Amino acid sequence: MVVRIMGEGQVRLADSHLTELNKLDDELLAEIESGDEAAFRRTLTALLDKVRDLGAPLPDDALEPSDLILPSPDATLEEVRALLRDDGLIPG
Predict the structure, then answer these.
(1) What values do phi and psi take at 36, rounded to 5?
(2) How far apart are CA 65 and CA 33, in angstroms?
(3) How far, in Å, CA of 30 to CA of 15, rounded?
(4) Which residues of 45-61 are buried (b: 16+ CB within 10 A; e: fewer)?
(5) In the 3-class helix/strand/coil scheme, how is the chain assigned residue by residue?
(6) Residue 63 — very low, low, confident or very high, per pLDDT cuts 50/70/90?
(7) What's phi and psi for 10, nearest 5 deg?
(8) Label partner for 37 (CA 20 to 30 A): which of 26, 44, 68, 84?
(9) How far apart are CA 51 and CA 13, in angstroms?
């Protein structure tokens, strides 16, 4: 799957990593719902770091459609809330 981090670019990520990412996504969703800004910031950073660590960056000139779009590292709690679906940022 191709994942875009807004403002950074795209990475190719194996579907097998979705379970691990979903755990962080569930934490992030709970922190957004509770309004815990500090925990939200830590978990968003951890989620994006995990995607970067597990994924292989695509070249800057690659124009592949993204299967998943994640917020930028400096996104606010409200901005991420606007991106959420029923099951968080990551389906599943």
Answers:
(1) -80, 90
(2) 30
(3) 23
(4) eebbebbbebbeebeee
(5) CEEEECCCEEEECCHHHHHHHHHHHHHHHHHHHHCCHHHHHHHHHHHHHHHHHHCEECCCCCCCCCCEEECCCCCCHHHHHHHCECCECCCC
(6) confident
(7) -120, 150
(8) 68
(9) 7
- Residue 28 and residue 38: Cα distance in Å, rounded? 11
Which residue reads 């922190």 in tokens?
A: 31
Token pair of 83, please?
């991106």
CB 90 within 8 A of CB 66: no
pLDDT one-digit tens code per residue, 74-83: 999 999 998 8
